[in-house]
Design goal:
The complex is a heterodimer of chains A (433) and B (268). Chain A has 433 residues and is an alpha/beta fold. Chain A is built from 18 helices and twelve strands. In chain A, 56% of the residues are buried.
């Protein structure tokens, strides 16, 4: 029943979490640039610190502008609440650090953003958390990788940059059999393309830097809890189900039957690790979300045109987008991502590494930089930039070769994008002659 | 805190404090497809301000064993048995929605044992539309969505049970799904709604209540509109009425005025 009580996606993207400011009447969300919030009394202060009352104390823990963003993304994802973080990587770290410590184990997809791969493969290992990497489509591999100390399954909705689609329903079922939650990075798809909770994910995070903000202006992250995972039933998470001496001996799963993760993540993770989001950044991301569906529609229609163009070019050896029947995730994408599998994808030139460089340098509308999800079209060479720390084996496992070019299709006139690509392809081809 | 009530393990949230027999006690009774956790922003505060709180999971709900009560009267008997199990001669009762009817009926059955009665989001009769009743049985997820749509009053709730950033609608949906899933033997949704729908003793029960009564009503509550509580208000001997600026999620959409009203009344 459409209306204020049961609003659709676009209405939520504009209104969830925000009402006209009662103090000033301001219609847009105010930016609360303040570190702290005055207590009404000593009793009020003590009650806030002890979680007897809900409210803001200090902007590292919470802030009214950030809270609007947290509610808005929760509403769009179908979650119970969220926590904004300094970046997408901070959201991933906060999720992991809340759920486990040294001696724990993660099962993760091989098709991950290079930064996430680094965190899991190198950095967390130093802190005693090990990860087994499994190809997203290797269903038996996910099951076989489970160990007694496994605490988390983790993958991306669509892998970066190969766009291998994660079969969330199947992988989450295996995770749940093992008594652990599935965390999904939904950065490249945004809730407009897929809502991972609808398919069985338990936690979802975004690098809000990308499509949520959409304008290449801000670094930020957010983790959303679906409220679906039963921590008590699992029995593997004493962090959430037993008294925590670090916070008044609180048993988070008793305080909230569905929200224990968020309680600990905010009260411990933001308090101690401190990777909070600036309210100004939160506001910029909110501005982006207001037009999310309009932008995503255009991202998708432009992507369709560019993929179609590239697929017809003899100098292009492969186009890696699930729109094409040749892509290994084509069928799964049709099922899970009917609006499109994203506008970030890769393709291989039918030429040398030097020709690849020439191609990138010849583009004029596309910008050569390390980001995706901007309203402007972007290009990069993953093997020498975002994924440069990976071995050849790890690159291959992620579907990347030395000649792979990654594009992030923006909102420009599609004919201009195609013209830019056409000219650059011609220049690169000539360079090999 | 675990108590054995009618031979079954019964969970009561105590607000993070140990039960202290020297303090007065408040028993909180949740509504259909809810559990103790809907009361966090009231119970934790009161537990740290001079009260014992026992926010119970009703039988067959989440952490409590036993058969879920099929009628308001059964649930009221359970509450009195809970008081016996906790060795409480007297307690204040606070109930929300279905829980408000349970609290009312318990106060009528044992008037000398109830010091104060708080009815949150109450109505009498608490009729459930035949379509919703049937939907709760045959399509519980659809019915859950319907109930939560009717229950919410705002798209911009204040900081709530999980702190700032809580999406109250989503949290309530998730709790409903969890409570339903935790009892595969009985459809708690349909059982609870049938109990609300069939309860016919409300006004007679109110006539038997001897203690002060506080009505906490949401001005724009579509589930239990304020006008549906007027019959009970008229029957109460000693009633106070507070209207909160919200809907049927009084504890989580309007937690601050709800706590203030509760605190003021319980202190009086």
């Amino acid at each position: 029943m459409p209306g204020y009580s049961d609003p659709g996606f676009d209405t939520l993207a504009l209104h969830a979490g925000a009402a006209p400011d009662p103090a000033t009447g301001a219609r847009a969300v105010p930016i609360h640039l303040t570190t702290s919030f005055v207590f009404e009394s000593s009793d009020h202060a003590a009650a806030l610190f002890n979680l007897e009352r809900a409210g803001h104390v200090y902007s590292r823990i919470s802030n009214p502008t950030n809270a609007v963003l947290e509610q808005r993304v929760s509403a769009l994802e179908g979650g119970i609440g969220a926590i904004t973080t300094a970046s997408g990587q901070a959201a991933l770290h906060l999720s992991i650090a809340t759920l486990m410590g040294a001696g724990s184990h993660i099962v993760a997809s091989t098709a991950l953003y290079g930064g996430s791969q680094n965190l899991l493969h190198y950095t967390l290992r130093r802190f005693g958390i090990e990860t087994t990497f499994v190809k997203p489509g290797d269903i038996d591999g996910w099951r076989a990788a489970v160990r007694p100390n496994t605490k988390l399954f983790f993958g991306e909705t669509v892998g970066n940059p190969g766009l291998e689609v994660l079969d969330i329903a199947t992988i989450s079922a295996i995770a749940h059999e093992a008594g652990v939650p599935l965390l999904v990075d939904s950065t490249l798809t945004s809730p407009w393309l897929i809502k991972p909770f609808d398919h069985g994910a338990d936690l979802v995070y975004h690098s809000a830097t990308k499509f949520l903000s959409g304008h290449g202006t801000v670094i930020g992250g957010i983790v959303v809890d679906g409220g679906t995972f039963d921590w008590d039933k699992s029995g593997k998470f004493p962090e959430l189900t037993e008294p925590y001496a670090g916070f008044h001996n609180m048993v988070f799963s008793e305080e909230s039957t569905v929200g224990a993760f968020l309680l600990r993540a905010r009260r411990e993770g933001l308090r101690d690790f401190g990777a909070c989001l600036s309210p100004h950044s939160a506001w910029l991301i909110l501005q982006g979300i207001e037009t999310l569906s309009l932008r995503m529609e255009r991202h998708m229609s432009n992507t369709r045109k560019v993929v179609e163009f590239l697929a017809g070019q003899p100098f292009v050896a492969r186009v890696g987008h699930p729109l094409l029947a040749s892509h290994p995730s084509h069928a799964l994408a049709q099922k899970l991502l009917p609006r499109g599998a994203g506008s970030v994808f890769s393709f291989d030139l039918n030429g040398s590494r030097e020709q690849g460089k020439k191609f990138v340098e010849s583009l004029k509308v596309f910008s050569h930089l390390a980001n995706v999800g901007d309203c402007r079209s972007l290009v990069i060479h993953p093997a020498s930039t975002t994924h440069f720390r990976l071995s050849d084996e790890a690159l291959a496992a992620g579907g990347i070769t030395q000649g792979t070019i990654r594009l992030s299709i923006g909102l420009e006139d599609p004919d201009d994008l195609i013209d830019d690509l056409k000219r650059a392809l011609k220049t690169a081809e000539k360079a090999g002659a | 805190m675990e108590l054995t009530v009618n031979g079954h393990s019964t969970y009561c949230y105590t607000g993070g404090k140990t039960f202290d027999a020297t303090k007065p006690t408040i028993i909180f009774i949740h509504g259909v497809l809810n559990d103790h956790s809907v009361w966090i922003l009231q119970t934790r505060y009161l537990a740290n301000h001079g009260w014992n709180v026992l926010a119970v999971d009703l039988p067959g709900h989440c952490r409590s064993a036993g058969n879920p009560p099929a009628t308001v009267e059964d649930a009221a008997d359970f509450v009195i048995a809970l008081m016996d199990a906790a060795d409480l001669q007297k307690a204040a009762l606070v109930g929300h929605s279905f829980g408000s009817l349970v609290a009312l009926e318990a106060a009528a059955r044992a008037p000398e044992r109830v010091s104060q009665l708080v009815l949150v989001g109450t109505a009498f009769p608490m009729k459930v539309s035949p379509a919703l009743l049937e939907s709760s049985l045959k399509e519980p997820m659809k019915a859950l969505e319907m109930v939560n749509i009717f229950s919410r009053s705002t798209l911009a709730p204040p900081p709530s049970a999980l702190g700032p950033g809580t999406w109250v609608y989503g949290a309530s949906m998730a709790l409903g799904r969890r409570v339903l899933a935790n009892n595969p033997r009985v459809n708690l949704f349909h059982t609870g709604f049938k109990a609300c729908d069939s309860y016919s003793h409300g006004e007679a029960a109110m006539a038997q209540v001897q203690c002060p009564v506080l009505f906490v009503l949401g001005r724009v509550d579509q589930m239990t509109p304020p006008k549906a509580a007027q019959g009970l208000i008229k029957k109460a001997l000693n009633a106070q009425v507070i209207y909160l600026p919200g809907g049927h999620q009084q504890m989580n959409e309007t937690p601050e005025p709800m706590l203030a009203a509760l605190n003021r009344f319980l202190k009086s």
